Amino acid sequence: MRRPFAQPRSTITGSSYSAGIVFSLASFAAIGIITLLTSVLSARLYGISVIGQAALALAPVAIVTLLSTVREQPAMVRELAKLEPGHPRATGLFLAVFAFSFALTLVVTVLGLVGCYFTFRGPLHHPGLLAPAAVGLVGYLLIINTCWNLDGVFGAFRAGRELFAVRLHQAVVYGALLTALVTIMPTVWGLVLAFLGSWLTALVHRLALMRRVICWRVPVAELRAGFASLREIVTFGLKLTPGSLAVGLSEASGTWILAVTSSIDAVGSYSRAWSLASRLTELNWRITEMLLPTLVQHRHAGDQARFARVLTDSLRYAAFGLLLPASVGGGAAEAIMTIFGAGFGTAAGALRILLFVPLLQTLTAIQGTALMAYDRPLLTAFAQGVRLVVTIAAGVTLAAGLGVTGMALAMAAGAFAGFGICLIVLRVRIARPPLAKPHYRQLGGLIAAYVGGLLTSHALEHAVPGSAGLLLALAGGSFAYVAIGVGVAGTTHHDRARLQNALARLTRRHITLLKSPGTA
Fold first, then answer.
1. In this structure, is residue 48 part of a structural domain?
2. Phi and psi dihedrals of 454, rounded to 5?
3. What's the N-to-C CA distance of the chain in angstroms?
4. pLDDT digits over 251-301, tens only?
5. Into how many domains does the chain fold?
6. If you ran DSSP here, which 8-state letter would residue 71 be given?
7. 512: which of 13, 208, 324, 361 is 20 to 30 A away, CA to CA?
8. Do the domain assignments include residue 278?
9. How far apart are CA 444 and CA 456, in angstroms?
10. Residue 286, pLDDT score
11. Quick check: 274 and 252 in contact, CB under 8 A?
12. Which of 177-181, 244-248, 494-498 has the lowest mean pLDDT?
């Protein structure tokens, strides 16, 4: 008798949380480097005007991305994480969520196409970008949205190795297509088709790997059960939607505001500065995915002291880590933007400001995680809503007079407003203890480290011309930042204990590998 379903030959079963995190961090680092290289490559090959056109043509994709989700995928992950890879219920849940996601995205894409028709022919005055914008939207519907749904399944089963492979594949193919297409279409079409082509080949790769975690032949009853669970999944996702929607709209507003108030070259230079800064915002996920379960455990155990210490230390570490690129990158901003080619140097001041946005966003996310641990997720939506209002209001006002620098100021102001609201809400709702004297010393150390790293990086950038000067500025500024920060702020006994434990684990791991028989 034929079995109702066949268990896939999975290499994912038993994969640990730690292993998944290792591959996630490796993916962030490797793809971050490749993305930086492809950003420089595309700017050099196509020029600032084409970069600006591509940013504007693909901007509707960002809007449709925000409006075509009710965070059903994270809610799906919450259910899939309880199952084993290949379980028939996983197939039913995935297909139900994918059907809902595709239907919602189809409706929003049609509305987006109508909006593009009137927007590009009207206030933006770029009717020639209507066709590439339409192709980008259709590509998002058929290719990118499918990839993201598949990634949700991989993530639920902690398939970090598979996610690393497909994302690395996509980043490399994008660079190859950029280089190949510039010879036959050195226009906005080259960038749009390279973008979609890289997603298409990565989609094929994802589908090939899906058999490791999903069994496609399952009983009809499991499919019905999956669709029966859809309402509960969507209801849970709706609670997460307002905050993420406000964040996405805040980040996307810069391109649209500059398109209306400034030139296409301004859009191009701003898009490159923001692409550099926005790469750092992905660290939000790396921190909060580890922080949330820890805070929940401490809260349910009634250990308020440990809750407060973990929260405070997370804020300290994130602030110290993310202020480093703000300091060093800000000091060498002119040299960094110059590597993209002619015209991009005008966004050096904007980059210096935009590098603060990932820092503020991450601190806000950490505080929002604490609020979620106390079952108050809607308070984070309020903070992000304030951020959106401030960003748009300040952007319209400042971009008209200050161009890309004005828009960068608006982005930073909005992020600071969201951070401030979360800080106040957290103190009122959770009653965090006031800052002690060591905390004031640590704040002083952060300020001193930022100034020292900024001045050192800026001085070295001007002392040595070219790429060598940029590398020297980044290295010297980083050394000055860390030395001053640690020297002034100092360390706590918890910091030293964590460092000793980490070194001990690494040492034990090294010794184990050396003693293991058959180890190469």
1. yes
2. -60, -50
3. 46
4. 888 888 888 888 878 888 888 888 888 888 877 766 665 566 567 667 767
5. 1
6. S
7. 13
8. no
9. 18
10. 62
11. no
12. 494-498
